């Protein structure tokens, strides 16, 4: 099954760079420009990993995380923050259960870091799905 990566960034160049870096990873890539569109996408599609900028119009990354974390079924979706933020904002982000962080700017120097973190997040998501499947088999098995 092909994994779906949701890239959420209002900076069209950063959005395109992230999609370009992941293009060869045999994943389905969808992108949106703000947190509201990202929430809609998560509600309507099977998303496996989210790459999230924090500074966006309409609904920023913090607003997205606030809403996203309220839904238990979303907790198994790894969120990777890709943003250029200050230390106090990093502390604020760590209050949410994020998977990882990638500092901006996104460029050729950190391309392999981006790709590797996404690969690991996909593996994590698949393991969580397998664990849930096994758990449901154990709970529903006659005994």
From TrEMBL:
Pfam families: Response_reg. SUPFAM superfamilies: CheY-like. Coiled coil: none annotated. May play the central regulatory role in sporulation. It may be an element of the effector pathway responsible for the activation of sporulation genes in response to nutritional stress. Spo0A may act in concert with spo0H (a sigma factor) to control the expression of some genes that are critical to the sporulation process. One of its GO terms (biological process) is phosphorelay signal transduction system. The keyword Phosphoprotein applies. This is Stage 0 sporulation protein A homolog. InterPro entries: Bact_response_regulator, CheY-like_superfamily, Sig_transdc_resp-reg_receiver. Residues 4-119 form the Response regulatory domain. The keyword Phosphoprotein applies. The modification 4-aspartylphosphate is found at residue 53. Keywords: Phosphoprotein. It comes from Ruminiclostridium papyrosolvens DSM 2782. Signal peptide: none annotated. It comes from the Bacteria.
């Amino acid at each position: 099954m092909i994994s779906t990566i949701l890239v959420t960034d209002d900076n069209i160049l950063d959005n395109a760079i992230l999609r370009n870096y992941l293009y060869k990873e045999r994943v389905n890539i969808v992108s949106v420009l703000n947190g509201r569109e990202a929430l809609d996408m998560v509600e309507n599609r099977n998303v496996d990993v989210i790459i999230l900028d924090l500074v966006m119009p309409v609904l920023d990354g913090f607003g997205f995380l606030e809403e996203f974390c309220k839904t238990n079924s979303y907790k198994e979706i790894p969120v990777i923050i890709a943003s250029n933020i200050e230390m106090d904002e990093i502390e604020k982000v760590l209050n949410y259960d994020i998977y990882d962080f990638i500092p901006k700017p996104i460029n050729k120097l950190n391309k392999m870091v981006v790709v590797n973190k996404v690969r690991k997040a996909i593996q994590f998501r698949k393991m969580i799905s397998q664990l849930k499947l096994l758990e449901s088999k154990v709970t529903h098995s006659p005994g």
